[in-house]
Structure formats: C-alpha cells, structure tokens
Amino acid sequence: QVQLVESGGGLVQPGGSLRLSCAASGSIFTIDAMGWYRQAPGKQRELVAVITPGGSTSYADSVKGRFTISRENAKNTVYLQMNSLRPEDTAVYSCNARIWVATIKYNDYWGQGTQVTVSS
Q1: Looking at the predicted structure, is the pLDDT value of residue 113 above 90?
Q2: d(Cα 52, Cα 50) in Å, to the nearest integer?
Q3: Considering only CA atoms, which of 50, 29, 30 is closest in space to residue 38?
Q4: pLDDT tens, position by position, 52-89
Q5: Is the model's pLDDT at 102 over the cut of 90?
Q6: Are 93 and 78 in contact (CB under 8 A)?
Q7: What are the DSSP calls for the chain, one per residue?
C-alpha cells in the first residue's frame, strides 16, 4: 500500500513563508510526476504546481514567482516552498503523485492534506 503524507502547514503572517513536504512510502517501483493542489473553502481544488522526475516544473499563475516546487527522488519526497504568502493562499494543500508499482501498473495517490492559514 502506497501512502503520501504531507507536513509543514500552519498559521503564518501575510508576507511570511512556509515549506511543505510530502513523503511517499510503501510498495514503490518509481514515481512519475508529483504535484501540489489546494482547496480553499467554497472553491474548487486547483493545481498549484507540478514537477516531473527530471525537474521540469509548472505553476499556477497565482503563485508564480512566490512558490517553488522541488523534489528529492532518492527520498520519494516533494516540497513546496511558499514565500510572500497572502491571505488568499489560505487553503488545504494536498500532494499528488503518479506512482508505478510495477513496470506496467501505476496509480495516482493523494495525501491527507495540510492546512495553510495566512492571517494577521
């Protein structure tokens, strides 16, 4: 059974920073793309950032220049460095990964989510 576990959320002041982590564990052959999503109250879940095994990244327009996604493949871990946080960044952040459990079999997994609250 593969699991993703996020950590690093919390309450921060506007303009502050947080670093989220998401570690995958279990029966893993290899991990394809990994990403971070967020969902604010009353809004749809949106893709924040995604990173490929080779390090190619994409970001939502709302976070470009402020957030950085990275990964350590040897640790099966993806990170999201969030700087210059704004109240509108408040949401539950969840990581997602496409994980191959065999040469011809993969599944998409989700973490449980971690709350990020930006408020004075």
Answers
A1: yes
A2: 7
A3: 50
A4: 999 999 999 999 999 999 999 899 999 999 999 999 99
A5: no
A6: no
A7: --EEEEE--EEE-TT--EEEEEEEESS-SEEEEEEEEEE-TTS--EEEEEE-TT--EEE-GGGTTTEEEEEEGGGTEEEEEE-S--GGG-EEEEEEEEEEEETTEEEEEE---EEEEE--
